[in-house]
Amino acid sequence: MENKKFELLNTINDPEDLRKLTVEQLPQVCSELRQFIVDELSVNPGHLASSLGVVEITVALHYVFNTPEDRVVWDVGHQAYGHKILTGRRNCFSTNRKLGGLRPFPSPAESKYDTFACGHASNSISAALGMAVASSKRKIVAIIGDGALSGGLAFEGLNNVSSSPNNLLIILNDNNMSIDRSVGGMKQYLLKLSTNETYNAIKFKANNWLYRKGLMNDARKNGLQRLANAFKSAIAHQQNIFDGMNIRYFGPFDGHNVVELVRIMRQLKEMKGPKLLHLHTQKGHGYAPAEKDVTTWHAPGKFDPETGERIVDKDPNKPQKYQDVFGHTLLELAKQNPKIVGVTPAMPSGCSMNIMMKEMPDRTFDVGIAEGHAVTFSGGMAKDGLLPFCNIYSAFAQRAYDNIIHDVALLNLNVVFCLDRAGLVGEDGATHHGAFDLAALRPIPNLTICSPMDEHELRRLMYTAQLPDKGPFVIRYPRGGGVLKDWRCPLEEIKVGTGRKLHDGSDVAVLSIGPIGNNVTEAINMMVGNPGQSGISVAHYDMRFLKPLDEDILKEVGRKFQRIITVENGVRNGGLGSAVLEWMNDHSYHPQITRLGLPETKFVEHGKVDELQHIVGIDAEAIRETIVRLTT
């Protein structure tokens, strides 16, 4: 029965097997591939809707192009589950995103079919153009979708594609979505782009005829490209931005007609010069629940594949997610402070800014996948008196580093940066861990940098950040649930640069920042009643602020302790541990300092958060072992 269910798919161990099939068999392959993805992700959660929407494109690409000799560059990587399954990873796909299993996104370290890293969006055109320039023999395809064309790097790549000799094929997977619905001018442009079927048919046939006659091999020299552009403008009453950049445009076509896609790709494959194939697709296509609610089904968790019912933990005592506490608190603050506005790059539901967006749509801004713009846009609003809360996932904020320095910190503007998904994020792996924000941001003048240990602290730090004249203010917090059953608390100011002593002791001092401090509390509790360990006296300080540091705490610790442990959910070099080392040295204290955090010698891969914390040595057990080792 199971073999019959995947009759063709089970015969495909690599694209060579796929290419042995007839074109007429490809719709069945697509159907089986889609069902395989649904079945697998129902029990091993991942990115569902995006991969369902690109099934036919995936099959056509590997059928037409000689992969892996020909290069396919994915953008963004959460579209690529079908690609993984067709390229030798079907039998181990059940390990996807699990510790030691398949990586969550394509990676050259995993497969020769994975040509480039693609955990973040908008890099495919630039990377593929580099490959096209490096080798004129290979066919190079960049497939960009899920809103990634709104990113600035994509436009930089397009600009260079138009001016560099190359034969690059860009496939635009246009589903009008990122995680949430796409926004901005490019979305509106693509919606309005001519869908005249007569024109598309004429243009496609004309290009093929001219190519066969040898007249389209150098469009820039003979002017035929410009003639074609003028022809289209006359028929469609508009200028095509891609044609205007001398990138030959084809489409839009139905991205779910695999037979037609094969025909089109075969004809475009040998054409000289840069080309863009515009395909309309439906995110979640072929699975009714995902089609109806694509945002929820972007990454739905476990579900019943037959009924579409999601398996959700409805425990009323389970702590709220930090992102939801942020969302509710932001709305609460915005009601009190009319200057507050919200800004997010394509993550309104992911960061829960949609809570404020629903009630105050005129004061919230989804700027698309454009982190740098989100920061500078926030800086512009702050310059003229507004108070932006700019929420960006920590790993994605790396793309806006220059903007944070040049357009906010340099001008000392009142922008609150809320860095969601800080620290280890779990199954999304190395491209998504928020490992570097503390170390990267600490040297920047004018920034205040803090991290709450729990949900109450998050609310109070958000309240503090929006008080007058605080300047640029960074609040980092992790993915997932907090630690308190009731996250509600009064909104009160926390004095900037102050920490707190949570547990007194005399043998060793542990200094932590952020929610990882809860692991320290657990480690201390584990020692109580443990023979040989209960007598160890441990002091625990929640530093709260990386910048400015609480110098009163550091003076107390420097005078009292010869053994200090720092704990942070970020890379060790440059973060809290480094800051404490530097301060102690500068003030002539010389304790033994042991720094616990993420390694600086390698990237941490994917797995459950507790598994990864154990591996890097920042879970409660590892902290306890470090305390015992230093004091016995």
Provide an overview of this structure.
- Helix 22 links the parallel strand 10 and strand 11.
- With 632 residues, the chain is α/β, with parallel strands linked by helices.
- The strands form three sheets. A seven-stranded mixed beta sheet has the order 7-6-8-9-11-10-15, with helices on both faces. A five-stranded parallel beta sheet has the order 1-2-3-5-4, sandwiched between helices.
- About 2% of the residues have low confidence.
- Helix content is 39%, strand content 14%.
Offer a concise description of the structure.
The protein is α/β, with parallel strands linked by helices. It has 27 helices and 17 strands.
Structural class: alpha/beta
Return Rg in Å: 27 Å
> The biggest beta sheet, please?
7 strands, mixed
Order of strands across the biggest sheet? 7-6-8-9-11-10-15
Number of helices: 27
Shape: globular
Strand content: 5-15%
Total number of beta strands: 17
End-to-end Cα distance: 62 Å
Structural key phrases:
seven-stranded mixed sheet, five-stranded parallel sheet, 17 strands, 39% helix, 14% strand
Give a topology summary:
Layout: H1 2-5, H2 15-18, H3 26-43, H4 49-53, H5 55-64, E1 71-75, H6 81-89, H7 124-134, E2 140-145, H8 152-161, E3 169-174, H9 185-192, H10 197-212, H11 219-222, H12 224-236, H13 241-244, E4 248-254, H14 258-269, E5 275-280, H15 288-292, H16 322-336, E6 340-344, H17 354-359, E7 364-366, H18 371-383, E8 387-393, H19 394-397, H20 401-409, E9 416-420, H21 437-441, E10 448-450, H22 455-465, E11 473-476, E12 500-503, E13 508-512, H23 517-527, E14 538-542, E15 545-547, H24 551-560, E16 563-571, H25 576-586, E17 592-598, H26 609-616, H27 620-631
Helix pairs in contact: 3-5, 5-14, 7-8, 16-22, 18-20, 23-27
